[in-house]
Each structure stands twice: as C-alpha cells, then as structure tokens.
Amino acid sequence: MTAALETRALGKRFRRxxxxxxxxxxxxxxxIVGLAGPNGAGKSTLLALAVALLAPTEGEICxxxxxxxxxxxxxxxxGYVAQDAPLYRSFTVGETLDYARRMNAxxxxxxxxxxxxxxxxxxxxxxxxxxxxxxLALAVALxxxPRLLLLDEPFxxxxxxxxxxxxxxxxxxxxxxGATVLVASHVVADIExxxxxxxxxxxxxxxxxxxxxxxLTSHRLLTGAGRPLGRIGGVDEIVRKRxxxxxxxxxxxxxxxxxxxxWSVDEIGLEELLLAYMAPEQLxxxxxxxxxxxxxG
Amino acid sequence: xxxxxWRQNRIQLLAGGALxxxxxxxxxxxxxxxxxxxxxxxxxxCLPPATRSGCDIIVRHFQSEHDTLALVGRxxxxxxxxxxxxxxxxxxxxxxxxxxxxxxxTQGVTRRxxxxxxxxxxxxxxxxxxLALSAIVTWWRLPFDRLEGRMSPSRxxxxxxxxxxxxxxxxxxxxxxxxxxxxxxxxxxAALAAFVAVRLAVANFLRPRYMAPEHDTATGLTPxxxxxxxxxxxxxxxxxxxxxxAARENxxxxxxxxxxxxxxxxxxSLGWRRAVSFQPADRFWTFQAIEAAxxxxxxxxxxxxxxxxxxxxxx
Amino acid sequence: MIExxxxxxxxxxxxxxIVQQVKEALRLGLLDVGDQLPTVREVVAxxxxxxxxxxxxxxDLEREGLVAPRPGRGTFVVGSLAAPSLQHHEAxxxxxxxxxxxxxxxxxxEESIRALISTTLREALVRRVA
Lengths: 297, 315, 130
What we know:
The complex is a heterotrimer of chains A (about 300), B (about 325) and C (about 130). Chain A has about 300 residues and is α/β, with parallel strands linked by helices. Chain A has helices at about 45-50, 95-105, 110-115, 130-140, 160-175, 190-195, 210-220, 270-280, 285-290, and strands spanning about 5-15, 15-30, 30-35, 60-65, 80, 150, 180-185, 195-200, 205-210, 220-225, 235-245, 245-255, 265. Chain B has helices spanning about 1-40, 55-65, 65-75, 80-100, 100-105, 110-150, 155, 160-180, 185-205, 245-260, 265-270, 285-310, and strands spanning about 215, 230-235, 275-280. The radius of gyration of chain B is 25 Å and the shape is elongated. In chain B, helix 6 (about 110-150) packs antiparallel against helix 8 (about 160-180). Chain B starts with a helix and ends with a helix. With about 130 residues, chain C is mainly α. In chain C, helix 1 (about 15-25) packs across helix 3. The interface of A and B includes residues 52, 55, 75 and 137 of A.
C-alpha cells in the first residue's frame, strides 16, 4: 500500500529560521491523522509543502507517490483548506462551487452540496458566518473527491456547534470516499475525536508519531516514592519525570506490563501524552511556556 | 478558465467597455458635424502643400471650433496606463494580498495554466478594445489628420496599431508588478510609473531614431512647411551648415540693429538659413510597426518573466 | 433504531461506549433480535467520529455473538443478553434502596450520591475491560 504522504528529512527555512526540520513521516492511505502541536510548530508549513505552495529547502516530500512541485496535476487529487478558509468574498456560495467545478477535472456536485445544503446559493461569502465559510471551503475541497484531504486549523474560528457540524460533514464525506485525512490543530480534543493516527510537531520537528490506540496503550503514568531510580521491569524509556517532595511521577513507554509493586500504574490521556513529548526537560522555563498547548474549552 | 477570468475581472472589463462606449458615442456624435464643417468651409483647398492665402486663419478657426476632440485626445493617451494599474496589477496582487492564492493554486488547474489563461484572455479583450478605440479615433480624426498629419507624437500615439501594443504591454507590466510586489496599491503605483517611464523613454529616445531623420534646409529664414511630418528640430544654420546658437543669433541681431539695418535681411546676407530635421509622414506605418513590435516584444518577455517568478514560492 | 451518544470526557474509549450502549439497549429490550443497527456512515455522520471506531465496536459485538453483518444490507442483532428475571431485578432494586438509605443516613446529599455512583461505576467498567 503506497503511503498517502511521505517525507524524508524534509526541511523548510524562512528568513526567520527553520519552520520544519529533519521531518521524516509516512502516512498510510485512508488514515485519519491528527497533526498536533502548538502554534508555530510547523504544521501549516508542512501542509503548504504538501500542496506545493512552498518549496522544500532540503529533503523530499512525496504526495500520493508524486512530487507535487514537479507534477502539479497531483493537486487534482488533493483537497486543501488553508487556515482561515480563504474564499473569494465577492462570490456567492453558488459561484464558489461553480468556480471549484471549473477548476477541477473531476467534480461531484452532490458531495460538495451536502456540506452547504442549508446555506442559500445566492448568499455572498462575505455575509456568511465563520461556520458556513468553513463548510463552504470544505465543500470546495470535497467536491473533487480527493484521495488526500488536508485541513489547516479548520476549527479555529468555530463555536462548538459549528465545529460539530463541520466534523459531521467531514467524517460523513470521508467515510464515503475513503480519503486519507490530515487535520492540523493545536486543540487536541478536536483531533482526539476523529484521529486514528497522530503526528506531533514541535519547533519544526516530529516529536511523536503513531497509531493513537497503540500510543495510549504503550504509555503509562507511574507514581511512586521518590528514590534513586533503578531499572523498572517493562519500561522501555522514561519520557518525562517529575518529582515533588517525596513523590515521583514518571511518564514511561512500555514494552511489557509493569508489575513492580512500588509503582502505581495509570493510563494517560492523549493531551497529557502530547504535552509530555513536547516539553524537553532541558529547556529553560521561558521557552517552555511558549510551547504550551492551548487547552480546549 | 474563461468563466473564471470573466468573473474575477468583470468590473474592469465592464468599465473598459463603458469607457469605449463613451468614446464611440462622442465620436459618432461629433464626427459627422466635423466632416460637414470641413466641407462647408472648403478646407480641402487648404491642405498642404497647396495653400491659399487666408488658409492659416481658417484652419486655426476650424481647429478651435472642434476642440472637444483635442481635449479627449489628450486623455486617450492615458488609457493604457489605466490598464496597467487596474487590470494588470490586481490580477496577482489581490490573490497574494488577500491570501486567496492558497485557494486558486491548489486546484486541478495548475498555477502556470491559471496565470497564462487569464493573461491571454485579458490580453485578447484588451487588444480587441484597443483596436476598436484606435479605429474609432482614427475615423474621428480624419479631417484633422488631413490638415495636421499624424506623425507628431500626440497623434501618432492614439491611432494605428501602437494603441493595442501599448495596451498589451501595460497589461503584462501590471501583472508582473503584482507578482513582484504582492500588494495591490504598491503594485498599481509601480505599474503606472513603470509604464509611463517606458512609454516616454521610447517616444523620446527611440522613436526619433527608428530611421535616420531627413534634413531640409530652406532657402530663407522661414522653414518649408512640414505640416504632416514630425519635426524633430528646427534651427538656424550658417552658410556652411553649422548650427548657430541662440547667443550668436542674438549677437547678430543686435549688430544689425546697431548698424540700423533690417535684422532679417542682415541674417540672410550672412547666408544663414533654417534647417529642419524631421521624420517624413510617409513613414507613419513603418514607425507604427516598429513601435508596436517593440511593445509587443517587451510584453512577451515580461509575461515569461512573470511565469518564472510565480513558479517559485509566492510567499 | 438506536441512537448513540458520546461522552467525550468520560475517559471511556469511544468504541467501548458504543458497545456498552448496544448491550444496554439489548438488556432493556429496546433492541430485539432482527433489529438493524445504524450503518457505520450513519453513526459517523451523527457523532462525527472515525469510521474505524464504529467498525471496531461492531466487530467486538459480532465476536460476542450479539450482532452479525448481512452483506449489502447492514448489521443486525442476532443474539440477546440473558435478561435478568424480574425477580433478579427486584432483589437488586431493594438492595439499592437499602444502600441509598444508608448513604442518606451518612449525610450524603443527592449530588454526592450521584458522584459516588458515577465514579465507582466508571472504574468498575474500566477494570472489567482492561
């Protein structure tokens, strides 16, 4: 099975610095992937590289088996919604869909229309609410029945109800066409609902990647009395440790269940897990704060 | 892409069409009247080179009577500049400034095809409009052209094939400006300025040299009439053909006055004459072709440069 | 047809919640043998979740012999859960009443009782599955 998106040591540098660095990923087809990480982590850059809006500074990116720069026709199979859902403000809803139909060889008006079924076709884009605009941008991306769908922070301006409607439209359509989906969001709860695969970016680098369920079952929080840390049976790697007074809490990646009685074992939530992988211990407090995930709700 | 080009540029295209309509209506409204006056005042007998006495006054009267034309003609020269600023510059600049390029360039139509299609379609519309404009203006101006010729810049530039050539160059320049500056207002300003600069440079430095100018020395101090030609320079020369500076001329006149002699006769006696360098009227179409070729060639080069620029990262 | 709901903050995996809701419906008689479960797409469109999650829940239920897919037509209920007899229910109900009386005597108000029941139940369910 070909990977829907593959990168090898991908890097992108701007004047202000590296937005993405040494990024190696392989995303299987039909996966629903959450691209997590704080603002400025490089998520938008990665997506822009996938649709040839940016050119790599180093490394390679391969989308649906092709180089999007050398073969721009690949975009026919990729649905992309940039941050803030860019649309032509003077167009009506109907004209926007008309536009998308003419700009793509393959077009399914039914699947596009479903996302905006409740929005009058003569309404101008500038008069739409944030939720309606997001769904219209989604309709434009879905109408070409893409094999790969890339969404950059689609929930950013949506209230909970609009966000839910958006997700419903998205998941329904994706189930129908069997697309691979990559959703970038700094809000973990939104991703958690739909993603079976997660990629965590922080400071332009991949910190964590894998199947969500596997990640959650292979990580545990161990709590115990703080004392010299020896080898704990079953633990592959200690991702983070925190001690307060007599108590020590460890986030550990396991290769086998921990049976050591001196440690109490708890499951960990996805958000906690991502936070832990994002904050390398050695960093001074100042930069750690900048990197904190925004909490949802 | 035709629908897309229309939908995204319809305001400009409609405005251009309206402007053209205004000129057409003005022309059709005043044209016949001008022609009638021409006949009635028997101006055909005043056409150079055969002039009868009194023609001078009649011609000047005729010209001032119908000065709408002169007024409008002055402004027609600016139309191509408007194309650079209002049609060309926004094409890319607004996509880049508003961020909608992230929508337009991630569809099945490739970036290259998107830009090329729009540029070609808009060029076609521009050329068609400019040709129509040139045709109507030429028809309108016919009586005046018979009197004044059309080699001089203010007439040369609003008739013939140079008009569509300017227009298509303006469009290309505007689009390039948008690609380079990525913001609407700066792109419009730069396009306007650049267009004017190139136009003036060509008109003032290249056009006089498309072909070697001809020279004509009068037998006296008054130049022979070159009513239809484009006079490049008009100076006093001595018997050997050397140009005489204004200072020297003034000195001679002073000398004559001091001696109590008629200045004109004195200068004549020195063997001084009027010399004119000019581009003859029969070179009109040759010059039109050369100038049109220059602007169309520049336009093509600019379009290629724009395509290259746009292929690289826009941001 | 049964309608699912998802409690995103309960800490219980989504697919598990679906399994539990089907079982609960079976127990309460809301679902009978022969009834059709919502299609994967219907659940996805309703809850906005990953289709694999629904597929997984249905597979689990199939493994337990409670449902079976009919190709081209959907997933149907084929088994039933041993419905506790009415007597069994009665006994549990009386035990519950006694416990509640004890809790009230201990000074717990309605909120605290609900909270206690909630957390204890949740932990019990998690332990059963883990």
